[in-house]
Amino acid sequence: MSDADTTEDPGELRTPIVAVLGHVDHGKTSLLDKIRGSAVIEGEAGAITQHIGATAVPLDVVSEVAGSLVDPTEFDLPGLLFIDTPGHHSFSTLRSRGGALADIAILVVDVNDGFQPQTEEAIRILKDTGTPFVVAANKIDTIPGWNPTEDAPVQQTYDNQSDRVRSQLDEALYELIGELSGAGFSSDLYWRVQDFQSNIGVIPVSAETGEGVPDLLTVLMGLAQRYMKSEMEVNIDGPGAGTVLEVKDERGFGTTLDVILYDGTIRQGDQIVVGGTNETIVTEVRALLKPRELAEIRTEKRFDDVESMQAAAGLKIAAPDLDEAMAGAPVRVVGDRDVEAVVEEVEAELAEVAVE
Ligand code: GDP
């Protein structure tokens, strides 16, 4: 069986792509690590899938982590795909058909530190790209006197705090809500938000203790399900479309592309069109690679070959003539279309990214 089929089974609904933004040291990397870690612990072995450049957290793992916060029968989206590289640069260069590659973003703000220059910058980018986002008010465990309960939902851990700690947290959160308002966004603590389209949900979390992570996953899943379902409806068997994360030399494969696939299917042997620094590249997929399962890492081999991959997924493409491919450039499977038309499509999209 090809591994592509075990990664996701979204029917015609693909996994929403999630990116993490925020000021340096506010905890982007730690939060991603925590999400990955809790998903590995809570989920059945292998339930969480490591992709190239991304981590897939399937719905059953979300609901496992979120416990009573989530009723999995309310969802038909397959889960969440987190882009592993946090930060503004990758977010800004990663486009899909003119918009942001990520469908949703998490803006991480250190709850003690509040808005900082890169928080403002992230807000500007999110505004410009019209990307829906939630705010993770991180490091709640650093409030003096904090009484942590590992991996607990926010309300539960909040109830375990002293009055003094609670009021200090409240104060910090309201300051943050004020700063968001100053930036033009109306927001509130997520459990008070009725309409996530007009109000940004603020979720108190700790990337250190995992507190609030169940809430964060629940809100992301709910947001995607309620407001993005129609955008997630893709022709999963149609020609694949993706964005280059990175161009990398890989021993035994030559120049390869790390790609986030956001639409359709890509197969071994497919003719693809890739945006390049000078000329648009037309080539053929020699191999589709995904990270080798952890249990098998003893061997030298780092990748597994797969026959095909479906959106949304992160994968590595090995193909001839990729030296001039560019990070941020579009990748398209030609399928039964006219190759010239696909080349034009890729060039038009590249021009659009370049002027911004
Ligand atoms: P990034 O630059 O935004 O990716 O931030 P990092 O994830 O590297 O975190 C910066 C520092 O803050 C590291 O030393 C983390 O261990 C620490 N940190 C991140 N999140 C938390 C948190 O929730 N609680 C505590 N106590 N420390 C945290």
TrEMBL record:
Biological function: Function in general translation initiation by promoting the binding of the formylmethionine-tRNA to ribosomes. Seems to function along with eIF-2.
Protein name: Probable translation initiation factor IF-2
Lineage start: Archaea, Methanobacteriati, Methanobacteriota, Stenosarchaea group, Halobacteria
Superkingdom classification of source: Archaea
Family: Belongs to the TRAFAC class translation factor GTPase superfamily. Classic translation factor GTPase family. IF-2 subfamily.
A GO-annotated cellular component: cytoplasm
Source organism per UniProt: Halobacterium hubeiense
GO molecular function: GTP binding; GTPase activity; translation initiation factor activity
Record domain Tr-type G: where: 13-228
Binding site for GTP: 22-29, 84-88, 138-141
Key words, A-Z: GTP-binding, Initiation factor, Nucleotide-binding, Protein biosynthesis
